[in-house]
């Protein structure tokens, strides 16, 4: 049997804390090495402190564990990134160069690179096609679109099997988001379940592309397990789950929590949201590796509320 050894950077984050468990379920706990800048609150399996801006440490980690796949999640997201653009560029690009080089020099078979709907900008219109023009408005989006091109370059020049998705805003109950423009769509469920008024940093009608965490995990695994010949996009695949506005998610929540209340106080993140498309055309992903989302807004809302209610009840019993 051929074993895979998987290294995850930025594993403590919103996606990493969930993806790590998915990958451990597939490859076995001993074969998945989670890493981040510090230890997580709860440690279930192998974990290493790793600052991915440090090329030597990253390469040493790849050699130490004979890594065959890297999931590179470490990054600074859209809203937080605007607070320090040059530092964000440095972190997002240097970590990715270090991953690509460590992979190339040490025989890593596959690399996963998470891109974002943030690669699109004001000229994309309402719906982003797979090959729409990329004119991102944030340093985060600029770094992601540069990263997509580097992925394609390493594939074409060195044959490195880099695969990538343009995730929409990810919504899940397991973890909290870390500084993006779509974060409101997670926070809103926590406030609803805690019976608090939700103050939304976007206008009521701002429609953005989003995806439920289970669908995001499914798409990631499907992409990474697809046969090489099925992968026709080496920059990054468009990926769609659902699209909705704050007033639509609030209405969906009220079907279960009728007295839920929301107020709108848009801040600097409104401008970022306004630069992103409302819809994503993901036909290429559907055709190439049979991607289909399983969740719509109401189905996601039901699961989010029920899981968060269980979580908060368990905490209150402690
Ligand atoms: P997050 O902010 O929750 O987590 C990022 C993690 O990276 C954090 O735990 C942080 O400590 C770590 N990190 C930062 N700098 C690091 C460094 N120098 N070395 C090692 N680790 C470092 O982000 P997330 O939501 O989990 O996103 C993961 C990836 O997916 C990112 O690349 C992000 O751009 C991408 N993505 C996320 C979303 C989303 O909605 N969550 C959407 C599109 C793309
Ligand atoms: C963000 O809002 O920055 C992220 C993303 C869509 O990339 N959630």
Automatic annotation (TrEMBL):
Coiled coil: none annotated. GO terms for biological process: L-threonine catabolic process. GO terms for molecular function: L-threonine 3-dehydrogenase activity. InterPro entries: Epimerase_deHydtase (IPR001509), NAD(P)-bd_dom_sf (IPR036291), NAD(P)_epim/dehydratase (IPR051225). Residues 6-238 form the NAD-dependent epimerase/dehydratase domain. Gene3D superfamilies: NAD(P)-binding Rossmann-like Domain (3.40.50.720). It comes from the Bacteria. PANTHER family: L-THREONINE 3-DEHYDROGENASE, L-THREONINE 3-DEHYDROGENASE, MITOCHONDRIAL. Belongs to the NAD(P)-dependent epimerase/dehydratase family. This is NAD-dependent epimerase/dehydratase family protein. It comes from Dyadobacter sediminis.
């Amino acid at each position: 049997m051929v074993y895979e050894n998987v290294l995850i950077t930025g594993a403590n984050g919103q996606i990493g804390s969930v993806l790590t468990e998915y990958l451990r379920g597939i490859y076995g706990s001993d074969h998945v090495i989670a890493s981040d800048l510090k230890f997580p609150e709860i440690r279930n399996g192998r974990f290493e402190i790793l600052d991915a801006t440090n090329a030597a440490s990253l390469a040493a980690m790849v050699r130490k564990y004979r890594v065959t796949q890297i999931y590179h999640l470490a990054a600074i997201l859209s809203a937080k990134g605007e607070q320090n653009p040059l530092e964000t560029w440095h972190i997002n690009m240097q970590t990715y160069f270090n991953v690509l080089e460590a992979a190339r020099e040490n025989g890593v078979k596959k690399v996963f690179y998470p891109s974002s709907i943030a690669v699109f900008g004001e000229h994309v219109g309402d719906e982003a096609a797979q090959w729409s023009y990329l004119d991102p408005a944030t340093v985060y989006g600029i770094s992601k679109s540069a990263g997509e091109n580097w992925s394609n370059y390493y594939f074409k020049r060195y044959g490195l099997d880099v695969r990538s998705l343009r995730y929409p805003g990810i919504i899940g109950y397991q973890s909290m988001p870390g500084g993006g423009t779509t974060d409101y769509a997670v926070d809103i469920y926590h406030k609803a379940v805690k019976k608090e008024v939700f103050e939304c940093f976007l206008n009521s009608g701002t429609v953005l592309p989003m995806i439920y965490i289970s669908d995001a995990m499914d798409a990631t695994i499907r992409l990474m397990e697809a046969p090489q010949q099925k992968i026709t996009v080496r920059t990054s695949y468009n990926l769609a789950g659902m699209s909705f506005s704050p007033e639509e998610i609030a209405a969906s929540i009220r079907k279960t929590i009728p007295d839920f209340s929301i107020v709108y106080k848009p801040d600097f993140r409104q401008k970022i949201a306004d630069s992103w498309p409302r819809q994503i055309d993901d036909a290429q992903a559907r055709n190439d590796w049979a991607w289909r989302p399983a969740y719509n807004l109401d189905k996601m809302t039901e699961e989010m509320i029920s899981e968060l209610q269980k979580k908060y009840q368990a905490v209150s019993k402690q």
